[in-house]
Amino acid sequence: MQERVPTEGDPDDSNVIARLPCSPARRAMGVVFLALPGCILIWLALTRPAETALVTLASLAVGAAMVWGAWRVWRATEGGLILTKLGLHDDTGALLCPLSQIERVESGILAFKPSGGFLLHLAKPAPWGWVPGLWWRRGRRLGIGGSVNARQAKAMSEAIAMLVMRRKETNMEDPL
Known about the structure:
Strand order of the largest sheet: 1-2-3-4
Structural class: alpha+beta
Low-confidence stretches: none
Distance between the termini: 21 Å
Strand content: 25-35%
Largest sheet: 4 strands, antiparallel
Radius of gyration: 19 Å
Order of helices and strands: EHHEEEEEEH
Number of helices: 3
Helix content: 25-40%
Number of strands: 7
């Protein structure tokens, strides 16, 4: 049975270590930077059709895909992430990775990570997953960031790094 993840203001907030909501400004910028070129492509395809119908259809398809992607980013970034004693969850309660599977945290400038976020290296490969603007997971890597506040992401990455270090020092599965 999966642990119920407390929501903001929940009286049973004792399991929550950190929260990482999406930044409204980053969220809006991400949507605008996807939707605007998509709308321009659609507008150009409709007002100035190319010499061949294939180019016009391709422009419409790419523009529509960009607008659809912007809508997906908007919907996906409504929530955020929650770090509990058991692991990292999204706001719906789905477990992204248990704390016991995190080997290290990478958050430096040269790390291959999402914008303003951090990268978690996992002990075992996990199923592929992606929530645009919030997280992606591929193999043994879990990237957090994109539309999140960089300072709050740094605080969460430091909390995770501290828990991983404490677990390694005590050689325990549960660092708390």
